[in-house]
Amino acid sequence: MSLKANLQANPISIAAIVIDLDGTLLHTAPELAESANRMLRDMGRAPASQELLMSYIGNGIHWLVKRALTGDMHAEPDAALFDQALPIFEKHYTELLLESRPFPNVVAGLDAMKAAGFRLGCITNKVERYTTPLLKGIDLAHYFEIVLAGDTLPEKKPHPMPLLHAAKFFGCPIEQLLLVGDSLSDAQAARAATCPIICVPYGYNHGEPVETLDIDAVIPDLMGVLPLIKRA
Ligand SMILES: O=C(O)COP(=O)(O)O
Ligand SMILES: [Mg+2]
C-alpha cells in the first residue's frame, strides 16, 4: 500500500498545520529567477535559464544569489562579489515581489483546513522583509496565527527549530504538528523534529521529484491535506 493510501485508511491526529511559502503556497520562482537574472545582467554577467535558477531556490535568498553567481549549489563566491550582488538582487526582488500568485487550490485548501478547525501557521526560509509584505499583499496573512520566516529564529529549515517553536506556540505535541512543504529542507526539518510531513509535487525541490524525499505522503495540492488527517 502506498504511504498516501495508508494515511487515507489511518488518518494522522493533527492539532495544527504549518505550511511552507515558496513553492507550496506561492509561485514565487518566476520573480526570484527574474530578479537573479536582472542582477546578473546589471553585473555584466551571462543570464541563466529559469529552470536552473529555480533549482537554486529553497535555502533562502543568500544561497540563491551565491548559486546564481557561481553556477554551483554549494560553492562560496568571492565575498566582495557577493556583497556587491546581494543589494542588486534585493532591489529587483523588492520591485517584483507582489507579482507572485498562489498555486491552484491554495485559497480553497486554506479555507477548508480553517473550516475543519485546524490552527494554521507558515514556516518559510524567506526573510521577514519579504515574507510579511508578500503574505499581506496576496491576502494570505489572515490565515496564519504564527509566521516564522528564515530570520525570525536563530535557525531555519532544515534545522528543526522553527517546527519545535511552532509546536510550542500551538501548545501541541510535535507529533500533532503537520508540515506541508515542497522540498528537501522541509523533509529534513520535519524528520529532525519528528513531525509528520506531506509534500506537494509542483514546488521547488532543486529539480528533483518529491517522491524521492523521506516524507509521509505526496498530495496534488492543498485540497489533498484534509482526507489524510483528523483533529487531535
Ligand atoms: O526562500 C527560499 O529559498 C525558500 O523558501 P521556503 O522555505 O518558503 O520554500
Ligand atoms: Mg518551499
TrEMBL record:
One of its GO terms (biological process) is glycolate biosynthetic process. The active site is at 20 (nucleophile). It catalyses: 2-phosphoglycolate + H2O = glycolate + phosphate. Its EC number is 3.1.3.18. It comes from Ferriphaselus amnicola. Belongs to the HAD-like hydrolase superfamily. CbbY/CbbZ/Gph/YieH family. The lineage of its organism: Bacteria, Pseudomonadati, Pseudomonadota, Betaproteobacteria, Nitrosomonadales. Gene3D superfamilies: HAD superfamily/HAD-like, Putative phosphatase, domain 2. Keywords: Carbohydrate metabolism, Hydrolase, Magnesium, Metal-binding. Specifically catalyzes the dephosphorylation of 2-phosphoglycolate. Is involved in the dissimilation of the intracellular 2-phosphoglycolate formed during the DNA repair of 3'-phosphoglycolate ends, a major class of DNA lesions induced by oxidative stress. Mg(2+) binds at residues 20, 22, 182. Pathway: Organic acid metabolism; glycolate biosynthesis; glycolate from 2-phosphoglycolate: step 1/1. Its cofactor is Mg(2+). GO terms for molecular function: metal ion binding; phosphoglycolate phosphatase activity. InterPro entries: HAD-like_hydrolase_sf, HAD-like_sf, HAD-SF_hydro_IA, HAD_2, HAD_sf, PGP-like_dom2, PGPase_prok. HAMAP family: GPH_hydrolase_bact. Pfam families: HAD_2. This is Phosphoglycolate phosphatase. GO terms for cellular component: cytosol.
